[in-house]
Specification:
CATH superfamily of chain A: Aldolase class I
Largest sheet of chain A: 8 strands, parallel, barrel
Strand order of the largest sheet of chain A: 1-2-3-4-5-8-9-10
CATH class of chain A: Alpha Beta
Order of helices and strands of chain A: HEHEHHEHEHHEHEEHEHEHEHH
Strand content of chain A: 15-25%
Oligomer: homodimer
Radius of gyration of chain A: 18 Å
Helix content of chain A: 40-55%
CATH architecture of chain A: Alpha-Beta Barrel
Number of domains of chain A: 1
Distance between the termini of chain A: 25 Å
């Protein structure tokens, strides 16, 4: 199962997930101008980052919004990038955060698991409840796809709704309970389910959820540029595995203020992944 | 402000919102085969429906998932369809239900308000809280765009999370409270805010929310094929306005079992909109 492949990658390489969020504000000076279109620049930037970091990363997370903002050509670049990364053997999370009623969700499942935008894993929003996830589950049956459902996010306003108390416990814990129940039948040899959770670098949430949901794999954004530290993400792990930690800007823009950024930005990205892996190693028991 | 234009359309034409969810299962026999690609068929089907119903509809809601499933060419068709409908003076809701942290949401806002996929209104998911909506609000300042935030949806599992009790009241009511607060500064001459809510054809939710949030415009899915009746949606209205009611399948597939469906499906769609408008008229005080 693909969750076992992710588990093996974490075991072998550590838990860094490189976030591919391309945009002009992370490109080195002069990069954008080398390309005929912003979409082509976005795809090529991600390809260069992936080439420089792929052997150190557990997986890549590609943020579709950055491509959607570039219109039809942007989505062509997203499609091609996913195809290329997967063809090279990388595990790819399509960060789409879709969520809708079942008849609509079936079309999203077709788009992102069955069709042109095929990813190994997807992020999904569960505000609609169980039936909104149902159309994605047939794709999990073969073991080739996995899902991370939004549980507790890493942004400052996350508490607005996610931390509201329901029967004395935060809403996000109720979401996690449902995800765990839906995912029970999709457990791999590693003990983890194909149905995981997005839980930000928020120490209290991670500490609360990890012991209660031992078979839930966590996708942890919010480290680095968003403020999370190794200390914050430490509770995400169980025996050093069971989670990948995302950094995007800290890796993509690691060239900032450094010499020869245009030529050497992949090198700086690689150094940033190495530094992050070392930082995280200090907190994985 | 665009919410006042929507209010005026409802006053003039009634509250029918035609849902454009194209897919082979709503096309008349022989339709798909007339086109070179599924994407082109989807766009042309929607154009024909719009031409036949546009003078009776308050607005159109276009479901992006149906186009996303068709890949890059599908999204090209979505883009072109929105451009064409808006150029003809129709009010168009891009049913995208996006939601993400602020830095990512800024890219979605660019895509769907500022860029190629520009719509008049968008549907958004607020699970991330206030900062996830913030990047969309500058587009509301000029009065040319509006938003419907998911509050209480119409699917069977909606209750899984949305009806959980927080301080004795359902979660969706807390979401509505936040939407109302965020939208207070965007009120138009009609008294309604540019920040509205998606509330399904669920009579208890509508009856609960309408009196408490008099300036909130409702987008009401779930009528017709999803099971909602005029009785169910009746509490959505305030003096006969303040809501649009969506039907998709009941209009798009109205040709089913009728003679000469391939030639006459736009006529059957028009008749279905007329019947729906009459049905709803009976419940708008």
């Amino acid at each position: 199962m693909i969750i076992d492949r992710l588990w093996a990658r974490v075991k072998e390489r550590g838990p860094v997930c490189v976030g591919l969020d391309p945009s002009p504000d992370v490109y080195p000076p002069g990069f954008l101008e080398k390309f005929g279109s912003p979409a082509e620049a976005a795809r090529c930037f991600c390809r260069e980052i992936a080439a420089a970091t792929g052997d150190l990363a557990a997986c890549f997370k590609v943020q579709i919004a950055h491509f959607e903002a570039l219109g039809v050509e942007g989505l062509r670049a997203y499609r091609d990038l996913l195809r290329e990364l997967r063809a090279e053997g990388h595990l790819v999370i399509g960060d789409v955060k879709r969520g809708d009623i079942a008849s609509t969700a079936a079309h999203y499942a077709q788009a992102h698991f069955g069709g042109e935008f095929r990813a190994d894993f997807l992020t999904l929003n569960a505000y609609f409840g169980a039936d909104a996830l149902a159309p994605f589950l047939p794709y999990l049956e073969g073991g080739e796809h996995g899902i991370f459902v939004l549980v507790r996010t890493s942004n400052p306003s996350a508490a607005d709704l996610q931390d509201l108390l329901v029967e004395g416990r935060p809403l996000y814990e109720h979401v996690a309970e449902r995800v765990a129940a839906w995912g029970e039948r999709f457990r791999g040899a590693s003990g983890y389910s194909l149905l995981g959770a997005v839980v930000g670098a928020h120490r209290p949430a991670l500490a609360r959820l990890r012991p209660r949901f031992p078979s839930m794999f966590f996708l942890v954004p919010g480290y680095g540029a968003q403020g999370g530290t190794a200390q914050d993400v430490a509770p995400a792990f169980r025996e050093g595995n069971g989670a990948v930690v995302v950094a995007a800007r800290a890796i993509l823009a690691a060239h900032r203020g450094k010499p020869a950024a245009l030529a050497r930005f992949p090198y700086y990205a690689r150094a940033a992944v190495q530094a992050m892996a070392e930082d995280l190693a200090s907190c994985r028991p």
